[in-house]
Amino acid sequence: MSHGGGGEGHVAEPNLTPLLDVVLQLLMFFMMCVNFVNEQVNESIALPKSQAVKPMDKADTDVLYINMKPFAKKDFQDRLPADVMSRVEARFSEGDECILISGKEPMKRMDLKVWLKQQYDDAKQLAESRGAKDVSTAIVIRAHKDSDYGQVFDILDMCKKTGYTRLKLRALTKNTPGGGT
Amino acid sequence: MTTKRKPDADIEPNLPVTPMLDMAFQLLAFFVMTYHPSDLEGQMDLSLPSENITQAKKQEDVQTNAAPDPNKPLELPANVTVIVRTQMDGVNDGRISALTLQDDAGPHAVDTLDKLVAELKDRSKTVENKENIKIQADGKLKWEEVVKVMDVCQQAGFKNISFVPPEQR
Predict the structure, then answer these.
(1) Nearest CA to CA, how far is A78 from chain B (Å)?
(2) How much of chain B, in percent, has pLDDT values that exceed 70?
(3) A179 pLDDT above the threshold of 80
(4) SS3 letters across A21-54
(5) Dist CA A88 CA A105 (whole Å)
(6) Has residue A39 got a pLDDT over 60?
(7) Which range has the top average pLDDT, A13-17, A150-154, B75-79?
(8) 3-class secondary structure for chain A?
């Protein structure tokens, strides 16, 4: 760094402006990277890795999320109030298929069927009142990697039978720098 | 600069820059600490046949305005099926124990997923339906393994994957 011209006693400070610009750039970067929690996506589900998935570029507006994982008591212990927790514990044993929909307690398959039918009927009414022919809701299925194929298939089947035609599966993209095989 | 400093300086220190910078550094530190690069979640669409495609045996049976029958399993017409078996033997529960490639010529056992890629690529040259493939897997197979098989199918060029109901065993 230059020192002031001789004999004047000036102290030339390093030029702060570019440094501050860099700091603000960094700040902007990290602010943009904050991923505000999408409350319908259950974070405790470890999705399988796949090369075939494409990152979503434009989110659909009309989406229903179905999260599924084997039941583990420790996942819910701290998150549910005691009375709900005791009810849930009575219904599920460790490792059972457990379907999670945001805003609702863990469900079993039968509950899901009932709920899906209600959602479909509502959506159909809405679509018909707007003049659309079909329900355009997409269903996104996020299944834990340790779930059984049979369970996932049954959920897919249930959605098809209820009448939904747009089904999507979620998985983690494989070729990210932080990810491994 | 050799000019004399003027009595009225150009820069007026009214704006308290230092505290503002302190706040900026605080914010930066916060966002740096809370940043965790996670694997991007992606999704793949399942292809379901459109309403008018049904598997008609004869030309006369083709109905152009068929409504989807909710009780009939919707399946794509495909020539090739990948059969994935698993054994609940206590050692490799839920993992792939046998892979079979079934096409019009008959079943063909495959050892590993890599060999399956090669076989599928071979088949995709000769088969007439180059995009559709079916996966038939045991109910107890882990979902992770099914996704691996789906990957393999995509790699080989079969973009439309449909699932066959697992056998009840």
Answers:
(1) 22
(2) 71
(3) no
(4) HHHHHHHHHHHHHCCCCCCCCCCCCCCCEECCCE
(5) 8
(6) yes
(7) A150-154
(8) CCCCCCCCCCCCCCCHHHHHHHHHHHHHHHHHHCCCCCCCCCCCCCCCEECCCEECCCCCCCEEEEEEEECCHHHHCCCCCHHHHHHHHHHCCCCCEEEECCCCCCECHHHHHHHHHHHHHHHHHHHHHHCCCCCCCEEEEEECCCCEHHHHHHHHHHHHHHCCCEEEEEEEECCCCCCCC
Q: Which of A148, A158, A162 to mutate to test the interface with B (most CBs of B within 10 A)?
A: A148
Chain B residues closer than 8 Å to A30 by CB: 28, 31-32, 35
Query: Alpha-carbon torsion A95, A99, A105, A110, what sign?
Result: negative
Q: What is the mean pLDDT of residues B139-162?
A: 85
Amino acid at B123: R
DSSP per-residue letters across chain B: --SPPPSS-SS-TTS-HHHHHHHHHHHHHHHHHT----PPEEEEEPP---TT----SSGGG--TTPPP-TTS------SEEEEEEE--SSSSTTSEEEEEEEETTEEEEE-SHHHHHHHHHHHHHH-S--SEEEEEE-TTSBHHHHHHHHHHHHHTT--EEEEEPPPP-
pTM of the full predicted structure? Answer: 0.69
| pLDDT value at residue B26 | 92
For residues A161-179, average pLDDT:
74
Residues A15-26 have a mean pLDDT of 86
Q: Extract the tokens encoding A162.
A: 């209820």
Taking the Cβ of residue B141 and every Cβ of chain A, the question of whether any pair is shorter than 8 Å is answered with yes
Residues A169, B46 contacting (CB under 8 angstroms): yes
Neighbours of B27 (CB within 10 A): 15
Residues 6+ apart with CB under 8 A from B9: none
For strand B96-103 and strand B80-86, is the pairing parallel, antiparallel, or unpaired? Answer: antiparallel
